[in-house]
Amino acid sequence: MHMDPIYVLTGAFLCSLWLIRLFFKRLSRRSIDYLLGPPPGSWLVGNFPDLSRPDELGDADFSWIKAYGSTLHIKHTFGEDRLFTADPKAIQYILNTSGYNFPKPPESRVGSEMLLGRGLVWAEGTQHARQRKIMNPAFSFAALRGFLPLFRQTSQRAVNKIKDDMFAGTESKVVDITKWLSRITLDAIGEAAFGYQFHAVTKGHGSKLAKAYDNLLPEAFADLSDASLATLSVMGWLPTFLIHALFRLPVGMFKPVHSYITIAREVAQDIVDKQTALYLDGKEGSKDVMMRANLSEDPKSKLSTEEILPQMTTLFLAGHDTTAITSSWALYHLSRNLEYQRLVREEIKATKAAAAERGDSELTIADLDSMKYLLATMKETLRYHPIVPALVREAGRDDVIPLALPVKSKTGETITSIPVSKGQTVHMSFIGYNRLPEVWGPDADQWRPERFLEGVQGSQKVNLGVISNVASFSSGLRGCIGWRFAVLEMQAILIELLESFEFSPPSENVEIIMAAAGVMTPMIKGSKERRANLPLTMTLL
Ligand code: HEM
């Protein structure tokens, strides 16, 4: 293709102007250079590789916090200054107190737009508030109560399928449990949110959308190549139209994302068409809250078709591997803590026996809430494994961020708050916060669910997050809308699995690491395979 040099020159000139403007804008911000921090790897990418391509997630966070305190100064691309914080009050201020005043940076919004569409994860300000209000009823207590039998049935189906497929003539088997959990959660979100059958448990990744999801995040984001790392690192310097163009390239990490989103949109459109036809025929079908919002006559509560498709792709992705991987981590720890696993199993038996005695075939939400050993397992797993280990936000105005844990400056002064200029980027380390000894006690770096039974031992208590001060579901106006759904689903899955199988480590010596693969994913150390993998020995009970 021939392109007139005048267009190329004009394009290059405009991009240079953009970069110069951005450079000076960033230079004119209030300095945070007085804060301590790690030396950058290079001026070009700063500390970005430490966070985005670590040997194991948390390596950088834990060592920096130990060396410099819970709030520090890191470098990003072209020497950009970033504030890094794991401080409870700072995170609470950004996510809760300041409302929408710390929006997502433009490059992260474009990323969510390209992966999920213009749905809830992408929206900001009043648009976000409106979408969230329309979606909230789908996650109400009444809606969740209705999902419990579905979670149980899907998990039960998986238990039967695992027994049929893997346990013919054997009592014990090493199984990659992440694969099964991913199938269970895909079936559950498809049916719970949209009445859509993926049949992932019974037919594996047979349907085209299930196939597109299979290994999507590790394939795109695990073990980033130098080219992908460089591309991600410069995104904050590019005008949004260029970021859009980059995401459309069918190469490298964009390739799997690109083919997935095309399929996800097709399937979402198909579901909308079928449900709408059923509704217009006066049949069931459109009982789902979002479908009804699509058909509403009231403009305040109406989700247009352009708005509903992104909500579907958002819920498919946000509500699937998140719970599968967190449940995998729970089983990982239970397999290494057999005595605690026994306590959970006893609790399951006792709760089911009590429900049967009162004539109930299904456990209720109150039953699940009463299972203290299981609930402590979930909370401790969420604390120890925040699958979204950090979130990045940008100050929407000049502001002052308060600290609960003062830090020392380079000159030895005590810093109790950080003034920041509009546009300052802040990296909130959930993985760092979730392991602070000041919050969780001296044994914060151990997986020990008993801490939630005894009462957490740390000296600092700031209300943060949506469950027991754990930050893993984020917090505030944009905290995870599906957190209750997730906790109930994970409890229901663990109940069915633990009732049928005992989990223990596999006999061969495999070391599991928390790999950076879009989300914190279990992988075998040293394996060349970029895929979630958690082999556990399952023994029939
Ligand atoms: C263990 C499971 C889960 C974890 C750890 C988790 C974590 C998170 C986090 C950290 C955020 C904030 C993201 C951001 O601000 O960019 C978030 C948002 C969100 N999550 Fe979850 N999530 C989980 C399960 C679910 C489930 C099951 C659903 C749906 C059924 C869901 C739907 C969403 C949605 C729609 C948002 C965007 C909320 C908003 O911006 O208002 N999540 N989640």
Index terms:
single chain; 541 residues; alpha+beta; 2 domains; four-stranded mixed beta sheet; three-stranded antiparallel beta sheet; 24 helices; 11 strands; binds protoporphyrin IX containing FE; heme binding; heme; Cyt_P450_E_grp-I
Characterization of this structure:
Pathway: Secondary metabolite biosynthesis. This protein has 24 helices and eleven strands. It has a four-stranded mixed β-sheet, with helices on both faces. It has a three-stranded antiparallel β-sheet with strand order 3-11-8. A two-stranded antiparallel ribbon has the order 5-6. A hairpin with a 1-residue loop joins strand 9 and strand 10. The longest helix is centred in the middle third of the chain and has 27 residues. The chain has two domains: 30 residues; 510 residues, Orthogonal Bundle (Cytochrome p450). By secondary structure, the protein is of the alpha+beta class. Helix 5 packs parallel to helix 13 and helix 8 packs antiparallel against helix 17. The model has no long low-confidence stretch (mean pLDDT 88). Bound molecules: protoporphyrin IX containing FE (HEM). Protoporphyrin IX containing FE binds next to helix 16, helix 17 and helix 24.
